[in-house]
Amino acid sequence: MAQIVRFHETGGPEVLRVEALEIGDPGPDEVRLRHVAVGLNFADIYFRTGLYPAPLPSGLGTEAAGIVESVGKNVTNVAVGDRVTYTGAYNTLGAYSTERLISAAPLIKLPDAITCETAAAMTMRGLTSAYLMRRIYDFKEGDVILLHAAAGGVGLIVSQWAKLLGLTVIGTVSSEAKAEIARAHGCDHTINYSLEDVATRVRELTGGVGVSVVFDSVGKTTFDASLDSLKRRGLMVCVGTASGPIAPLNPQVLAMKGSLYLTRPALADYISDPVEKAALAQELFDHVGAGRIKIEVNQQYALQDAAHAHRELESRNTTGSSIFVI
């Protein structure tokens, strides 16, 4: 019997339950996967609260890594015994489990240099960082970016990747401890948003010019400051809403603030093409395998502690990546 975390109603962390379920055999195009580690992401909270609707009762989690135990008909991209990782959205929902049936399509084979624990901590964050660094904007050496939640899982990867591209990184954090972590991973400057006005400090650091790109995963509480931190014709990239949804925006505001660009990308649209997905994954794995990008797994939990893990994540008590170890 597999152990799986599910919720029968939306709400706070208390709605999460650990249940025993019989998994069965894989059907056509499916595999049976034994998990070694499962990723914890803010998107999991969106599913749990109903911001991302799912039929109830529902499993939770969209990212994990493990070992293929059996394969169904027509599966050719992986074989029994392969170590694999995956991430997605609705197509991979149910990762909080010891084992599961899953379509073979989203599975990515792991190179020897990447452990399952590292993969579970970085597949979603790493592929997100990969498209942000390699697909969103034509970066030039010397460009300056503003990175919110710089000590978070995506933030630490983006900071390191940005330095490989020769960028200057200004990162926002909520404490001096997080500022130290961000600086250790490539941030040239940090701004404690609890103590400083972000846009004012950005203008000071850039000689009044502003930054080329803002990566904002916080949303409601940082959106205005993000726009005010951009240089003329800069790009605002909304990559999350950890503090709540962004209020409706009159496009005229973008013109008044310097003919700004605004985008709200989703990982799914950058990995839907298998060729592009493989290219982004290969570049990510190469950087991590060679030690150019280090993945910080700073919190580990048991599946039985899913509610506690969600409370920790929501209260912003975590840094780097968090995983469940099976």
UniProtKB/TrEMBL annotation:
GO terms for cellular component: cytosol. InterPro entries: ADH-like_C, ADH-like_N, ER, GroES-like_sf, NAD(P)-bd_dom_sf, QOR-like, Quin_OxRdtase/zeta-crystal_CS. GO terms for molecular function: mRNA 3'-UTR AU-rich region binding; NADPH binding; quinone reductase (NADPH) activity; zinc ion binding. Gene3D superfamilies: Medium-chain alcohol dehydrogenases, catalytic domain, NAD(P)-binding Rossmann-like Domain. Residues 11-324 form the Enoyl reductase (ER) domain. SUPFAM superfamilies: GroES-like, NAD(P)-binding Rossmann-fold domains. Pfam families: ADH_N, ADH_zinc_N. The lineage of its organism: Bacteria, Pseudomonadati, Pseudomonadota, Betaproteobacteria, Burkholderiales. This is Quinone oxidoreductase. It comes from the Bacteria. Keywords: NADP, Oxidoreductase. NCBIfam families: PRK10754.1.
